[in-house]
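BUG: 3D viewer hangs when loading the predicted structure for this chain

Environment: internal workstation, default settings.
Expected: structure renders.
Actual: progress bar stalls at 90%.

Input used:
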Amino acid sequence: MQIQLKHLPHQTDAINAICKVLEDVRISSTNAIHQNPIIDIQDEAISRNIAEIWNGDVEDLNPIPKSMQRTVEDGILGIDAKLETGTGKTYVYTRLMYELNRQYGFNKFILLVPSTPIKEGTKNFIEANYSKIHFADIYPNVSLKLQVLNAQKNKSSGRKMFPSAIAEYARGTRLEKNRVHVLLTTDKMLLSKATMEKDDYDQTLLGEFTQPYKALEETRPIVIIDEPHRFKRENKAYQCLIDKIKPQCVIRFGATFPYVGKSEEKDYNNLVYNLGACEAFNDQLVKGVAVQTLEDADADDVNIKLMQVSHRPKSCVFRNEKTKKTFDLVPGDSLGIIDESFTGISVESIGKSDDCDISNGITLSNGHVIAVGDIIYSSIYGTTYQELMMKQAIDAHFVKEKENFLRGNKIKTLSLFFIDSIYSYRGSDNDGKLRISFEKLLTQKLQEECAKIDQLDKKSSRMLEYKEYLEASLKDIKKTNGGYFSEDNSKADEDIQEEVDKILRDKESLISFKNEEEQWNTMRFIFSKWTLREGWDNPNVFTIAKLRSSGSEISKLQEVGRGLRLPVDEFGNRISGEQFYLNYIIDFTEKKFAENLINEINADVRTITSIRGVLSKVAKDRGVDENVLFAELLIGGYVDKDQNIIEDKRLEMMDKYPEFNTGLQQGKVIDTTKKKLGEVKIREERFSEIKELWSKINQKYYLTLDDINDEELGNAVKSILESDIFEEQLIHAKEKRTTKGEDGLVEIKESTAGYHVIDSSMPYGEFLRRVQSNTGIPMEIMHSNIIEYNLKHPINTKLFNKTSMHNFISKFQEWLESSFMKRFSYKKLEVSTTETSLTDIDGNVKKAIPQGSVGIMRSDSLSVPAKFLYESFVYDSPKERETIENSGIDEVVVFGKIPRSSIRVPLYYGGTTSPDFMYVLKKPSGEHIINFIVETKDVKKDSGLRNDEKMRIQSAKKFFETLKEDGLNVSFEKQMKKDDIVTMIRKLVK
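Structure tokens produced before the viewer hung:
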């Protein structure tokens, strides 16, 4: 199996935003061939392009909030892109290097990452065969040559040679056409005096340089920084980068950015793309999170708190939180001195640790690192509680594994266990007590699952295949699990090295069901120290069990980040458009994890603290009196008498009254100890009445387009030229003037103080090339029709400029969309339908589906219509709520919302669309069943629809007309805000 990378809109938008910054900027290639082209960072086009992005004037790019608009003037072009964990940051900056090379000729990049695990993860991605194939399709004949800077081996004799990675990188020149040179390094290697600062190498680079810093500076690199919060401006590595390497451009990618000094302001520098956590979760770009917490198993639990750490001499102070008595300990002392329940655990070291989040703390003998203020609990260190957590994780794993195995295309399900004690897993011979305990619990569970299958009256071929997979797991239980710990790299044990390679370096093997010999690959449970939480991830992790709480206040998003990526199926295809969940299992000390995670996700989103200003709108949407709704909220304890939201009741309120929510949508993060997973149950008896319709509309169809001949294309070119696309590029000067406001306070008013014409002309050949790149019009056709047009209408050479080019491209896209409006058709594919959103692989209706697939809002106060397909009242808009409320009329047999992205009607201009509602109708007399599909738009009239929405509706209409021609009695209609569903239905069944 090979992973298939996809073109995802949010990733290409990030790349386009960064490339936009350099559009029309003076970039010189007259310098030395071993250097990057030189950017004129004084060019006003840079600030102009950034302003366009910030203001939302660039197509497909969202504006940047004012609070995030910040520029650092330090003589280096800085560009920032914010991408949430799990949304493909490594893919974006890898493809960006190809794109910057294609558009502007840059070929020297330094990738700076903060740790060895991230370096390994980046290296594995860039060198993976699936990545090379993907990028070769987009950028034919372009190769990326990666050099990885590692520590130099000390040589006692012989010549002292330059680090080979730096030498190879620096020697690369622009004469090597279509080659991009990349140096990957960590902050520690960048600061390594032994490697980087030495000036006595017996070798010179580029004819004169004997020091690596100087050689890298000479290449005039573009530096890409991963995880910018680990590279604060005052950080030694960042200072070294700026002072020693002197890059001309620094591009930072991260989910988290550092603060400016000790202030609350984030250190953004020309942020041009902002994909925050809230958008990532709401748009299903990552998995949702289902938090599972085990209750306190011991009423007599003892907890101790680290109060103080001293270095001269090394000592620490713990406090018993039950007795409030303090204890001074030094390295080697047992925690049993504080309470016998901690016997067997001692203070191993004090000071620096291998935990990147705890730079100064203590390391315990079990590998657990804690900082001042952290609390540890005796019960959590007990084997009984740990076994309960493992059992919970195993149970959660098999629920998801079975579901994923029985899909149309199987998904291999993985689980990840974070532990502190390596010895508890490895032992002296890869047989630690924890591993033995886990394998015992796993064996019991596998036997239970096999017995359940044996008891089934009817077993599908897929179910029998699943049993075979379970039996293969039982046959060699040790092969089902493996560990990765940094200490493993120094071990010679072949079995351990095989585990490490499979987990850390061979992602494709880990998510494959079978090996090259077609034998079952049962490895799916991974154990590691907490340090694996960065640099490594696997899209098919569905359960993470944190067997030991660190107690540290680190990012909750970072904690769940290893399992947020959307999964890939058995053929390597990433699956999007579905609501998946990551089970995150923690101990009772982190019972507020879900609330804290939601707060962190909403951190960059304006969250309302009062219902003032929105109460009337929500009341109107709900169809209730404003005063009645306020009284309901007040009595429920959700708001106070001044209409302020009670913070402790916020989550419960947003769950019950989702219309007030401005942040994370309902059901994206769930605490399963408080409520069921965000699911909606399907009424089996209702589904039986809509089953035939559902089966028909899930049949696969493909799109065919009429050909456009050269003559028609040429006429389109001439028609666009005749529409006067010529436009000069204007730059407006803004004036901000202080003035006295009505309240007597000084305020600033902005006005236009004039404008200037910018010469944005380009060579004729460049104009043709860029038009072809963006429209697909062959240069020969474009050229011949421009010549023909010029004979009748002499062209001023000023026509060939950037603005005119964009005008042409835009008008051609409009022509293309309108030309194909009636020139496409659908043809049925003779393939059998497998699993659907509502049925399993055998065609049986599922018990429940994720709520997010049918509606972000859920009302427990409204009665669910008897004829509704689902047991809960879920909807996406006030119009949909009204439609559901009013659809219980006699003419309706059954109706339901169509799960999001389930039908996937192909669109002639790319992408797919899926309608909102499906109905089975009957005439009052009872005969003549009619199937009805509805697309609901909560706008007043057609003119309020975007052009894209109109084309989606037109495509859906054509699709269902085709189904009707193929024998299904179906009708498709759009429903606007003014359209009453009862009127629409009765008109249809007359």
